[in-house]
Amino acid sequence: MAYQTLQTEVRDRIMLITINRPEKLNALNNTVMEELDLAIEEVLSRDDIAGAIVTGSGDKAFVAGADIAGFQQLSVDEARALSIKGQALFASIEQASKPFLAAVNGFALGGGCELAMACHLRMASTRARFGQPEINLGLIPGYGGTQRLPRLVGLTRALHLMLTGEMITAEQAKAYGLVWDVVAPEELLPASMTLMQKIVSGPPHAIRHILHCAYLFDAGQQAGYAAEAQAFSECFATADAREGIQAFLEKRKPRFQGK
Ligand code: COA
Fold this sequence. Notes:
binds coenzyme A; alpha/beta; 2-enoyl-CoA Hydratase, Chain A, domain 1
């Protein structure tokens, strides 16, 4: 299938999905999200595909977040719908019966970090940077980050990252257990392919059961996702979020006033 914002190719039963908006650091706009949904469906429905690797185009970014330009006119109700849509999209990766690996080649910020966290496995290049900088916009993570980050790195580190908006390096991400390994940029795709080939050479039914069972402890977390979508949308009623989003687009520091 041909996509506008994704490049896809299948090699040795692995679909390589490259998010391809390098001029906007592969930020997730509506088209990217809709096409990711279709690509996930393609991976799941095609018998000749056993798993997928998700990466970003260019050498700068994996995904630098949700597209902030699309946030400017967002009402509270639209923000809630967007959060629920992003959560559902990333849940469909997490709940997939075939393994997804994020090959993080650069900035994985906001929705980009959330996308990487929704994948079952993560490899990083030395150029990768991870963070949840939504606080700088007067917002919070809205595509599952408030739930997945504490689970993957622990509450202390997750709260620090979400409350400060600070970025961490690939090596720190490895030390935190957020990624499996860090390799040179030119090694990222070969190393990711090698790992995925090893995995998909195994028995598909056992792979499917492991992927299913490993997330079952999450069953009680639906309330967390609902609270996140509600809180994310409420941010859009604040002057601080309007200021944070506008300041980013105008390339200046935000002036938050607590309103
Ligand atoms: N949404 C929309 N556009 C984005 C974007 C995003 N999340 N991240 C980057 N871009 C755009 C920039 O606006 C810029 O577009 P322009 O060339 O048309 O002005 C282009 O991508 C390149 O980004 P730029 O900021 O110039 O690169 P940089 O190297 O100076 O900084 C970052 C890189 C990642 C630190 C910076 O782009 C950034 O902070 N991005 C936003 C991260 C974020 O807050 N994500 C969470 C969103 S909820």
